[in-house]
Queue: 4 jobs
Job 1
Amino acid sequence: MVSVSTFKKCVLICVFMLCGCGGDDVKIYKYPGGQIMLREEYENGKQSKSTWYSLSGTVLETTEWKNGTGTSYQLEPGGWISAQIPMVNGFADGTAQYFDSKGNTVATREFKNGEAMTEKIPYNDQQGTENKKQN
């Protein structure tokens, strides 16, 4: 008969093995056509590096993460960056920029602790309007 203590240790070891908790790992995300879009590296269970790729395999951006702090990017299926978002402790924090397929800024949004505070949408004359969050 297995003791309760031994059983708990086995369950804990199995959970760590299944989820990769506390270990080193690499996660790969792909475009619909199968090309690598994002490669995330983890050390001791924490995200340490992200590398974003174009459809042709060229590195678009790389972020070295420190305790959930760095810059995150959003890519579109066409292989271009549609957003650049500053992250602090795993939450959007600061001014995020949103881009069209030519790399032009089409909007900005201010975040604080993951919550959107304001949004600025530029017009053709590069003037913008600021919309404060309504409570």
Job 2
Amino acid sequence: MEFRLSFIGSNFRMERREPFDRPYMRALFDYGARKMTDGEAWATEPPAVATLGGTADRPAAR
């Protein structure tokens, strides 16, 4: 069985202003589409315990 994880990275900084926020949804869609075309949509390993403060997009501060 292969492991696949997709997530919203910490480099997506737009904040939702209301429950149905079209600009936010569009930006989130574009973010996901960019990750897909860049070949970064899926992580193949779970994060190590020591790196839980970061993401694949931005490592934890040291």
Job 3
Amino acid sequence: MSVNKDDPGHATLQYGRFDVFLDGELVKGCITADEELGMCELIAYDDKGRATVEGGRLKTVVRYGKVQLRPARGRTK
């Protein structure tokens, strides 16, 4: 599932919102998550918790592990 419109796994809000867990922990700033591949692409944050930009683009990191998508509580559709 992805918020990136160019990603084949792009999902619109018609599917609701989802929380993404990596190895059992909720992650923030998830752009793409794939349960089958066990992969999450996340916004890279600096030590002050601010999103980082590199070359005019939002910087991201890819992390691997057990990925779970769950409907977000209180924030559906």
Job 4
Amino acid sequence: MVRQAEREAPRALDVASGLNIAAFNLGIAGGAWGGGLVVAHLGIMQTPWIGALVVLGALGLTALSGHLDRRTVAAADGEAALATACAD
């Protein structure tokens, strides 16, 4: 997010950094809350497989994010090539 803010809106770099930290803190709070729910309702012995499911979900989201980033870069490269070809 911070790199994108540097590109798109350099004046908003502080805001982007603050949002990045806020998202990190929300993730910590959400994980603690979710873990508390698991322990309260399912017991402490169920936390390893629930944690494994959370990790698999995170890996899936990371792979999706990488795919979308590559697709965006490929589209931008295609547009740049088209603009160069039209200029010639």
